[in-house]
Amino acid sequence: MFKDIHEDYLRSIIFGFQDALVSTTGVVAGVAAGSNHKDTVVLAGIVTIIVEALSMGVGQYQSEKSVHQMDKTGRHTDNLYIVGSLMFVSYFLGGLVPVIPVVIFPLPASASISVISALVGLFILGFLKAKMVKVNPIPSAFEILSLGGITTAIGLVIGKILKIT
Ligand SMILES: [Zn+2]
User: Fold this and answer.
1) Distance CA 132, CA 112 (A)
2) Cα-based angle 36, 118, 78 (whole degrees, multiple of 5)
3) How far apart are the CA of 135 and the centre of ligand 1, in A?
4) pLDDT at residue number 3
5) How far does residue 77's CA lie from ligand 1's centre (Å)?
6) Based on CB atoms within 10 Å of each CB, which residue in 108, 127, 155, 161 is the most buried?
């Protein structure tokens, strides 16, 4: 199924989802721990998704452009606009996973639902990623899960330290 997709497109999609699930969740968890105001958490989450999706999309376009300029093998037949757009869309969709629970449910339970949803998402992503490149999916899934867990924990600690009332 994924064989027909150019590897650079796949990389944008995986990186976009992974980064969104890690960083947006860290922001949501941290702001929830630090403010406990639903509107503030929702606002921070939405701003993060939009700003990051744009920044990551542009960043992916530019870094891929330099790769193409240096490429002498002719392997880079991928379209730079598609690479950037896939990053934008993947980040946006991935970011909705931790943000939707805080929109729907009341705090503080929603922050836990948000973190759990994102960690499940990361585990599935790590699993699928390993399946695609044909390596053992379980270590890959746990690797990406611990990355998300550590980042979220750092967000929580900073939120607790800088708590506003
Ligand atoms: Zn390329």
Assistant:
1) 30
2) 130
3) 23
4) 60
5) 6
6) 155
**What distance in angstroms lies between residue 12's CA and the mean position of ligand 1's atoms?**
10
Whole-model pTM: value is: 0.90
Q: What are the pLDDT digits (tens) for 68-115?
A: 999 888 888 889 999 999 999 999 999 999 999 999 999 989 999 999
- Helix boundaries (H) for the chain: 7-35, 38-70, 80-104, 109-132, 137-161
Distance 92 CA to ligand 1 centre (A): 21
Ligand 1 centroid – CA 64 distance (Å): 6
pLDDT recorded at residue 6? 85
- State in Å: Cα 21 to ligand 1 middle: 24
